[in-house]
Design brief:
alpha/beta; seven-stranded mixed β-sheet; 217 residues; 8 helices
Length: 217
């Protein structure tokens, strides 16, 4: 038990940390997105919030497309400022404007493509070249396209977030979310989320894992 709680083993000890059914869903999503690791959450918004708070701190700057889900907009404009995390919006249809908006304290660029509900799209490879030049994380909400149509990590993204509630389930039965990416980045998300509690329920994970079998259909 000491080794398990010290993360020296992969033992399943507590469902807020890890769970076999949740792990199955994560591994299937890693295979679909081409990701090294993932952490499943109770909802899409908890995935988005976890992907922010694992990397942003007081004094940091978030650059986000203005075409985003309503609740994501609320988090960025109402709650992140409480921690003095600044933000700037850019026009998703004008990616050439991004580089001029990057500040010395910019830590992350967040895009939702296609956006919800406007379905605006952006050239992810172009954005990836910009973020690599400035050593900034690229966080992509891939909820609407899903990995059946788009794989942002292959296009240069660092993190991919999903509301599994939508197309990954496809039938409106359960809430769920997931953050995917390189292991060292997902480890930061895991460290934040396992203590703050937005973990996916095992039953919902089981439903979502079954749903993925017909995702391409």
């Amino acid at each position: 038990m000491r080794a398990a709680f010290a993360d020296e083993t992969d033992a399943f000890i507590y469902s807020r940390f890890s769970n076999p059914s949740v792990d199955e869903f994560i591994q299937r999503m890693c295979a679909l997105e081409g990701a090294e690791a993932g952490f499943a959450t109770a909802s899409g918004m908890s995935a988005v919030f976890g992907s922010f708070m694992a990397f942003l701190k007081t004094g940091d700057h978030l650059l986000s497309s203005q075409s985003i889900f309503g609740s994501t907009h609320t988090v960025i404009t109402k709650f992140l400022p409480r921690w003095n995390i600044q933000h700037t919006y850019f026009d998703l249809t004008r990616p050439e404007s991004i580089e001029a908006l990057i500040q010395p304290n910019t830590k992350m660029i967040f895009v939702e493509t296609p956006s919800n509900p406007g379905l605006d799209v952006i050239d992810l490879e172009l954005v990836a070249r910009i973020v690599k030049k400035h050593n900034v994380l690229l966080n992509v909400d891939n909820c609407f396209a899903t990995p059946a149509i788009q794989r942002p990590l292959e296009l240069g993204a660092d993190l991919v977030t999903h509301s599994a509630t939508k197309w990954l389930d496809g039938q409106g039965r359960v809430l769920g979310g997931i953050v995917l990416g390189r292991k060292e980045l997902v480890d930061e998300v895991y460290a934040f989320c396992r203590s703050t509690g937005p973990s996916l329920s095992p039953f919902n994970a089981w439903v979502l894992a079954r749903s993925l079998e017909t995702l391409h259909v």
